[in-house]
Design goal:
It is built from eleven helices and twelve strands. With 342 residues, it is an alpha/beta fold. It has two domains: 200 residues, D-Maltodextrin-Binding Protein, domain 2 (3-Layer(aba) Sandwich); 138 residues, D-Maltodextrin-Binding Protein, domain 2, CATH 3.40.190. The strands form two sheets. Strands 1, 2, 3, 4, 5, 11 and 12 form a seven-stranded mixed β-sheet that branches. The protein has a five-stranded mixed β-sheet with strand order 8-7-9-6-10. Helix 6 runs parallel beside helix 7 and helix 9 crosses helix 11. The radius of gyration is 20 Å and the shape is globular.
Length: 342
């Protein structure tokens, strides 16, 4: 009991500190002072937001006094807006889907020109597809059951919208195959509870707060749709989606008694190439020297390890991250070696 109470207190204090020192903004990024960095997350109902705020808090706590580095977090519409803000130098760091990183770096998909100033720091956690629909709308139990439904694709311009549309494209579906709504996560869960929506795309690392909200609603039956092996293979072959199999364990959500065969793509921490090597070296070092901190913020924090750091990264490392990984003895694949050090 003492250990449990201590853990609860620790998390509570961490949250208080997190919000006390980390400014969370929506809309126009704030003015920055010397030594200040801004990280862009996503909407509040997913996993980008708590992890992003947690990282900003950790970095500020550890680096402000000794190195003058303070990190602020802001909300956004997700990966699409985050790429645009990196390009526009409105933010310094951003949490991004692997899909967006791959498209932006290579100039494919929705991007006409390669974004060669994109650098990476680490893979963060799997971004798990949660296509959630009302139980009585289930036909096959797979993702194609969204056809014809009043369905929230995700906020316009978000990574949720783009990954969902990419998956649909891979399976021969068009935007017009659903009665599309463009809502944030908690807006979507509320609309489902109010019977104004029949389903929603709520991609994030489980447990997703908005999905929990839907499943915990008394008298409401909801289902997370699955992906067959053939569907996963087709999506990867026909699109830029960098997918892999992900099993959502039973009891991840209230009354979810069976495992769900979903799919996922890597989320990663992106950064502008122009940010100083020393700053990113210190951010990377701090992140991996405090493994328990983000585990207490969200369960997906447990994926942020040196063993996973280089998995699925779609663009070269930032020189600061590269320097840290070399010191730690990691073997860096040729495609991840920063152009600046070649």
């Amino acid at each position: 009991m003492q250990k449990k109470s201590f853990a609860i207190c620790t998390i509570f204090i961490a949250i208080l500190v997190l919000f006390a020192i980390t400014n969370v903004f929506a809309g126009t990024p704030p003015e920055k002072g010397e030594g200040e960095l801004i990280i862009s997350t996503a909407t509040t109902g997913g996993t980008y937001y708590p992890i992003g705020v947690g990282m900003a808090s950790l970095w500020s706590i550890k680096l402000a006094s000794a190195h003058g580095i303070q990190v602020q977090s802001i909300t956004s519409a997700g990966s699409g807006e985050n790429i645009n803000m990196l390009k526009g130098e409105e933010v310094d760091l951003a949490i991004l889907q692997g899909l967006f990183g791959k498209m932006a770096w290579n100039g494919i998909g929705i991007y006409d020109k390669p974004y060669k100033e994109l650098r990476t720091i680490t893979m963060l956690w799997p971004n798990v597809e949660h296509f959630v629909i009302i139980g009585d709308k289930v036909k096959t139990g797979t993702v194609t059951d969204i056809k014809g439904l009043k369905f929230s694709i995700g906020r316009a311009g978000s990574g949720t919208e783009r990954s969902g549309l990419t998956i649909m494209e891979g399976l021969g579906m068009k935007r017009e195959d659903v009665q599309g709504e463009y809502l944030g996560y908690f807006e979507s869960s509320k609309a489902m509870k109010d019977k104004k929506l029949e389903g929603a795309n709520l991609v994030a690392g489980p447990p997703v707060a908005a999905v929990t909200d839907v499943f915990a609603t008394p008298g409401m039956k909801a289902v997370i749709l699955e992906f067959t092996d053939e569907q996963l293979e087709t999506i990867n072959e026909k699109t830029a989606y960098p997918g892999f199999r992900y099993i959502i364990p039973a009891n991840t959500y209230p009354r979810q008694t069976k495992e769900v065969r979903s799919i996922a793509q890597p989320n990663f921490l992106g950064v502008r190439a122009a940010v100083s090597e020393e700053s990113i070296y210190l951010l990377t070092k701090t992140l991996f020297e405090n493994p328990e901190y983000l585990k207490n913020v969200h369960t997906m924090g447990s994926f942020i390890t040196l063993d996973n750091a280089l998995s699925g990264l779609p663009a070269p490392l930032h020189p600061g991250a590269y320097k840290y990984y070399k010191e730690m003895g990691l073997t860096i694949p040729e495609n991840l070696v920063p152009p600046e050090v070649k």
